[in-house]
Design a protein that fits this description.
It is a single chain. The protein is an alpha+beta fold and 401 residues long. It has a domain of 128 residues: Glucose Permease (Domain IIA). Helices cover 49% and strands 19% of the residues.
């Protein structure tokens, strides 16, 4: 009953709003009309309503899809920007790896150079050779398949990680090797300093007189390409220290070339030492600036080192006398000779015959009065001669620290 009433009310409403209508048309005095029934009106209104709803739907979808496309475009642009940043970072990382690899190779060459200079034939066990590939892999293109891109990027990252680990391992091995080299140089410097100090010579003063720097300057450098080393992110402290210490050691060795370490008479015995003693004539205490080495008359007297003869001939209480300037503040004096074999201004070699042992001048018996002067002051020749073997070891780099 309710349903019947509903449809009846609905039909009444439709009759009210859509009554039968007539449309009149007049043409040349003729009148015509068209009858528009209720059903036709409902159909036309329904069609117009559907068209309006369709227009609203299309407009909404157009605006909504445009926003989606804009958002997607923004996401694509952001992805491209992120990709460019990643690609730039990757290129920087690749460049850093290549710089580090080049620097490590240069450092290894320097290590090998030091080993060869020290007479060591064995090479350091470092994994840098012609088969090592330190070229970083290329980054994949964003247009590739996502799965392929992800897989290739994973492989790339793994290879980068392996390269980084390998380079760090090589760097650590090199640093350890150079640390050992630094320890060896420290031992040599300590041994050398102790030897010279025992001989009454300060290394600093000896280098000053030789016009050699106490601290090597930072200019020049050894084998390393400085640009590669400085640009690479590597710890260079141990290498810098090794370079400076080795330069300092070489400077001291250069200064040592002037030290007279040859014993003038091969066969002798010490009859009077350096320092305070009772004068053999007056029996009063007096300073003895040399070392008296007694032996047979005409025993050959040789030069304590290479140099230039500054005096040759008779010299008061010294009798027949020879003085040699060895350079770098070192001088040697030879007194009481029976015969002089060199002339003033003559250049002599180490261990060259310069005279014969005698007893001329103020002397009680046959002997050589031998003096060594350094920086204008006499030093104990016996200490220098005792240090001679150690000095030879230093020069030959065969000493045990």
């Amino acid at each position: 009953m309710k349903i019947i009433n509903f449809f009846k009310n609905l039909d009444d409403i439709l009759d009210h709003y859509f009554p039968d209508r007539q449309m009149y048309f007049r043409t040349n005095g003729d009148v015509r009309f068209i009858k528009v029934s209720k059903n036709v009106q409902i159909f036309l209104c329904t069609g117009l309503l559907c068209f309006f709803v369709w227009c609203l739907f299309i407009s909404y979808n157009y605006v909504y899809l445009d926003e989606i496309l804009t958002e997607k475009n923004d996401e694509v642009e952001q992805a491209k920007e992120n990709y460019l940043k990643i690609e730039q970072q990757y290129a920087e990382l690749q460049n850093e790896i290549q710089k580090s690899a080049a620097a490590l190779e240069q450092r290894q060459k320097y290590i090998q150079q030091v080993l060869e200079e020290n007479g060591e034939v064995m090479s350091p066990v470092l994994p840098l050779n012609d088969n090592d590939d330190f070229t970083a892999p290329e980054y994949v293109d964003v247009d590739e398949n996502d799965n392929d891109q992800e897989a290739r990027n994973v492989i790339r990252d793994e290879k980068l990680e392996k390269l980084y680990v390998d380079l760090k391992r090589v760097e650590m091995q090199q640093n350890q090797l150079v640390k050992n080299m630094n320890d060896e140089v420290d031992q040599k410097l300590s041994f050398l300093s102790d030897t010279l100090t025992k001989a009454g010579i300060t290394p600093e003063k000896m280098m000053e007189l030789a016009n050699l720097p106490l601290e090597p300057s930072a200019s020049g450098g050894p084998f390393i390409a400085v640009s590669n080393i400085s640009e690479a992110n590597l710890d260079t402290h141990a290498f810098d220290s090794l370079f400076y210490k080795r330069a300092h050691l070489e400077n001291i060795k250069t200064a040592l070339d002037h030290l007279p370490i040859i014993t003038p008479p091969e066969k002798h015995y010490v009859s009077s030492k350096f320092g305070m003693r009772r004068d053999p004539f007056t029996r009063k205490w007096a300073t003895h600036n040399g070392l008296d080495m007694a032996g047979w008359r005409n025993t050959p007297i040789n030069s304590g080192g290479a140099g230039i003869v500054t005096r040759a001939g008779r010299n008061g209480a010294f009798g027949l006398f020879v003085e040699i300037n060895h350079g770098n503040g070192f001088k040697t004096k030879y007194g009481h000779l029976s015969k002089v074999k060199v002339e003033r201004g003559e250049k002599v070699e180490a261990n060259q015959l310069i005279g014969l042992m005698g007893s001329t001048g103020r002397s009680t018996s046959t002997h050589l009065h031998y003096e060594i002067w350094f920086n204008g002051k006499p030093i104990d020749p016996l200490k220098v001669l005792k240090a001679a073997k150690d000095v030879q070891k230093i020069k030959q780099q065969k000493h045990d620290a």
